[in-house]
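User: Here's a protein and a ligand (IPE). What would the complex look like?
Assistant: Let me lay out the input and then the predicted complex.
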Amino acid sequence: MSDRPNHDPGVARSVAVIMDGNGRWAAARGVPVAEGHREGARALRRTVEAAIDLGIQSLAVYAFSTENWARPPDEVDSIMELMDETIDRELPDLAKQGVRTRFFGRRDRVPAALRQKMEGLEAETAANERLSLWIAFDYGSRAELVDAARRLLADGVRPQDVSEQAMSERLYAPELPDPDLVIRTSGEQRISNFLLWQSAYAELVFDETLWPDFGADQLRSALDEYAQRARRFGARGQ
Ligand code: IPE
Ligand code: IPE
Ligand code: MG
C-alpha cells in the first residue's frame, strides 16, 4: 500500500501481470481456446517459480475479469474448471515452495465448490512467506471501487473522513502492495480494468509474447526494463 518503494529503487518487489493472449495462442495452433487457457496455467506456474528466483515478493495476476463473463458459456466453464484443477494440481506444489496464494475479486458469482477450494488454499498457505501470489478472479477495478464506496457508506464514514487510506482499506485485498511494475503480455497496450487505484504510479511494460509462451526470460527482461525507469511519484527528479 505504500506509494514509494522502501528498497533499492531499481528492483521491482511487487509485480502485476495481465496474462493475455491465450485465445490467440490457441487460434494460431488451430486448437480449442480451452487449450490456450490450459497452457496459460502452465505459464503461470513457470512465472511464479521464476518470480521466486528473481526475489519478487508479491505477484498479482489477472486471471478472470468481471467482463470475461461475456464470453461464450463453454469458454467460461472451461476457465472455471481449469482454476479448479490448478488449485488441485499446480498451486500445492507452489505452496511447498513457500508461496502464499490469495484470491481477490467478487466471490459471489464463482461456483460454490470452486469458492470453497479457493478458501481452502488460502487457509492452507496463510503461513507461507516466500512469495505472495494474488490471483484476480472475477475481478474488475471499477466494481472494486464501487464496492469500496458502498463499504464506506455502510461503515458510516463521514464525508470529511473519506481519505485515500479509508478507500485503500476497503479494497478487495487491502494487503496487496501497490505494484511497482505492471506487465501486459500479447502486445495489447491497455489496462482492461485491472488495479486502477493501485497502479497509479506503477511502471508499465508491454511484452509481445502470448501468455502461454511467457516465462523466466520474459519476466527477467521486463524487470531489466523496469530498472531503467526513473520513478518520480510526481516530485522533481534529480
Ligand atoms: C487471457 O487470454 C485470459 C483471459 C482473459 C481469461 P485471452 O483469452 O484474452 O486471449 P486473447 O486475447 O483472446 O488472445
Ligand atoms: C484482460 O484481458 C483480462 C485478463 C487477462 C484476465 P482481456 O483479453 O479480457 O481484455 P481485453 O478485452 O483485450 O481488453
Ligand atoms: Mg485477451
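Summary: Residues 20, 23 surround magnesium ion (ligand 3) (CB under 6 Å).
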